[in-house]
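From the shared-data thread, chain only:
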Amino acid sequence: MLDLEYFWNRLLLTLGVLLVLKPSGCVRTSDSRPNFLLLMADDLGIGDVGCYGNNTIRTPNIDRLAEDGVKLTQHISAAPVCTPSRAAFLTGRYPIRSGMVSSNGNQVLQWTGVSGGIPTNEMTFAKILKNKGYATGLIGKWHLGLNCDSAGDHCHHPLNHGFDHFYGMPFSLMGDCIQWEISEKRAGLEHRLNLCVQIVAFAALTLTVAKLIHLISIAWMPVIWSTAAAVLLFLTSYFVGVLIVHADCFLMRHHTITEQPMHFQRTTPLLLKEVSLFVQRNKHKPFLLFVSFLHVHTPLITTKNFCGKSLHGMYGDNIEEMDWMVGQILDTLDKEGLTQSTLVYFTSDHGGSLESQLGNNQYGGWNGIYKGGKGMGGWEGGIRVPGIFRWPGVLPAGRVIDEPTSLMDVYPTVVQLGGGQVPRDRVIDGQDLLPLLQGTTQHSSHEFLLHYCEDILHAARWHQRERGTVWKVHYMSPVFHPEGAGACYGKAVCPCSGEKVALHDPPLLYDLSRDPSEAHPLTPDMEPSFTQVLERVEQAVREHRRTLSPAPMQLDSGNVWKPWLQPCCGLFPLCWCDQEDDWQ
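Structure, as tokens:
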């Protein structure tokens, strides 16, 4: 009787395992909650990675992820620049819904000391998983705001958006961090400071002269203070480059500044050490770790071990170092026995920058066959990014998916795998990717994807499934400069509106299935369904706009630098500290 009972239990167990087998041969148990390791590069072009066609830059660790997992070839960011794209990634929503856009040309947050940022009422995937018992961490770049009313309220801080642990840069690794001579951001601040110098100096001189010739009867103190203010502003304007390094290029752990300014040659090892410690601390419970690389944003700060090693100068060196960092992080999972239980995701926040220049040299990325790059509205080169998922035993190895997908899709995928519920009190634009990744469905859940530049719709794509066609409609696009070039050289990024943006009437239409480079716009004579495609896309755009609710634009008035919001571990502007030794 005992033998029969044992046999029966074994048979039931075997049947249970067979029932959860997927067509790909992978197993997923309903009661298992994976760890999540989300890896995001900064400004990496899709053409810069080996598994996406590059054979001159060495990316063996990223390529290994693709070999062992699923590679997406039409993976799309929600914006062609950092701040709105990252907001959409964390919330699963187009950035216009949360107000993480602008209407005045400020495409990203320009400073740390601004009041704009991701609104506190947004529900990130980190918030949901934290409430489900996950340890949640962010290591690296944030660039989604910090303070609202004072230098210590931290209303936009990662810890206020679901992360238990934060270590990294609240801002972004801008060119100012090594004081490149070409910096529109610094030039703008210099202009404003010089204007203040002139105004205050004139006021001080006027008061002094008036006091001396007895035209006014005021005490000497206002004269002295106005003169002191003029001197201080003069010194600030003279040393503005150094002050920006102190002000914005710093590392923070939780709410504490640990290094201001940063010592760049040790930043990479510090970030890797933090990743290793986080994994070790949380290996016995489910965790979500978002590693947001500072690579490969210019100024391309690279440690000495990788300088001069690639075939593509500073940019290639920086990519190869980032790939090595990916390998070190994956090795940490292996060492702790977490590889099988961890879903790893690798991507970039948007396409490579074609306008990153120092003098006559270009230091940006390569977007392969795709037109345009960072900040260029709806062109593929600015929004098509790497997308790789690896989860051994659950996702098939070596699978390639050509369906349209979005960075916003990570949101519902992670939330549901982690045992959470996708919010129902707001529109979530992302779609669960798991059925597509496992092969239980053949088509993406996205029929339409919209491509904004700031708050302006530049383009839209329609996946016409019955024809197997992906149509792309451009309503407007930036005018490249000089004529015949492939970017807006002389600017940080192309504008989203104004005289340097061309309006297309009728809209430009491309068939991405046959013309992924967007080289040959279709006409009614060339495409019989030209009018019907435009009408169907326009209908989808109208339906989308009906779902939008007004939201304060965080990158408009909230994007003005306010000295009282500037984080400083000292008396501003003399911010200086190094507490890294205290955190060993």
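The two ends are 61 Å apart (CA to CA).
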